[in-house]
Amino acid sequence: MPAFDEMYRTVPYAQAAVRPHYAAYEEWLQQQTPQALQHLREEAELIFRRVGITFAVYGDKDEDGSGNERLIPFDLLPRVIPVAEWDRLQAGLAQRVTALNRFLHDIYHDQAILKAGIIPSEQVLGNVQYRKQMIGVTVPNGVYSHISGIDVVRATHGEEEGQYFVLEDNLRVPSGVSYMLENRKMMMRLCPELFQSHKVAPVAHYADLLLETLRDSAPAAVSDPVVVVLTPGMYNSAYFEHAFLAQQMGVELVEGQDLFVRDGFCYMRTTEGPQRVDVIYRRIDDDFLDPRVFRKDSTLGCAGLMDVYRAGHVAICNAIGTGIADDKSIYPYVPQMIEFYLGEKPLLANVPTWLCRKQDDLRYVLDHLDELVVKEVHGAGGYGMLIGPTASKAEIEEFRAVLQQHPDRYIAQPTLSLSTCPTFVDSGVAPRHIDLRPFVLCGKEVQMVAGGLTRVALKEGSLVVNSSQGGGTKDTWVL
Predict the structure, then answer these.
(1) SS (H, E, C) the chain
(2) Where is the Circularly permuted ATP-grasp type domain (predicted)?
């Protein structure tokens, strides 16, 4: 069955019927020559490079041995979502993140969902992402994941065409929002006439919402909280985003060496002396936050930070221990979490998933490896996965051996035909597969800007949209 296309009712595009919400954009596109589009693309690349919007690929070195800084390719053709569709999506995302936060509070307190037998206890309590140091810790507003990046795909599955599915929950240090914001600025700069003919919902206020969310998460006794962004430093692949968000919010960007603990509080070093810190928007994984508690060789965090956190004298966003909720082996249980904690039916469906730790699931997966996508439960960035339909026989057999040896490390899902969107590639305008990462903010209330980061697989036929695997990004318009 052909993939659902966001803009046209049929593929190939020649004389295809355009969907109503793309009609005005399609008129503009028909007036553009390939040369004009190429010129716009080159201008965008020049501006992005000048601004320094790059990311580093770990293990990818230039000839001189230095790290390779790359631009994430930007595509000029936006992904357009009608408002009624977005409203349904937004409601489902808010429901899902609310349930995930309830789950996180529960497993570090009463563990009711484990006692009810809905999720096997050993799958949570024995998971490397479960932090025993968080048991009994009270966090402001009961919120653990303040910034969630929920990966959503659209696919034809069964009889329903173009159904939305949640592919993945990112609750630790989700990245990509700076590209969402910069993509919009770029489109408004290159094609201002499009924004005069379309009522596109704004996204520029995201930094204001983020700062409001972080301030809402401060310790209760603090009336005017000091917020900082904690980065691992300039060699991190997402350093541009860390610096960008700090600048947009008007707060300090700090590294671990800028922070210290004294008398039960956290301070940052400034030219005017120590200043107390109330909220840390951390872009560092749990393991590196406090060398006294987690990895003793970490130089990225702040010694003693966990004691201050447990005492309720500093807020860390996202909370320590959120990783258990975005572990891919926990993902299949999210619909049951929604029913257990909220008493509601899920508004957004999961992708059907086989847990290879289960014997029956493993048997099925091994028998159908050439049809399935197999992922590591702790994997990210498109690494460590098998896409059965495009893998060679040798790759499948190699993966089979690994699966048989470590089944608990993997899940499997059907190979969904992700929706496509017209994309300007070397051969012209052609369909390419996409996903969507909306960013959900959770402080005293759940908020989000209309849209998110649309990622696009630039290789023909590829389903892997990750930037580390050659994917690009698009502006996302909610009309």
Answers:
(1) CCCCECCECCCCCCCCCECHHHHHHHHHHHCCCHHHHHHHHHHHHHHHHHHCCEEEEEEEECCCCCEEEEECCEEEEEEEECHHHHHHHHHHHHHHHHHHHHHHHHHCCCCHHHHCCCCCHHHHHCCCCCCHHHCCCCCHHHCCCCEEEEEEEEEEECCEEEEEEEEEEECCCCCCHHHHHHHHHHHHHHCHHHHHHCCCCCCCCHHHHHHHHHHHCCCCCCCCCCEEEECCCCCCCCHHHHHHHHHHHCCEEECHHHEEEECCEEEECCCCCCEECCEEEECCCHHHCCCCCCCCCCCCCCCCHHHHHHCCCCEEECCCCHHHHHCCCCHHHHHHHHHHHHCCCCCCEECCCEECCCHHHHHHHHHCCCCEEEEECCCCCCCCCEEHHHCCHHHHHHHHHHHHHCHHHEEEEECCCECEEEEEECCEEEEEEEEEECEEEECCCEECCCCCEEEECCCCCCCCCCHHHCCEEEEEEEC
(2) 78-457
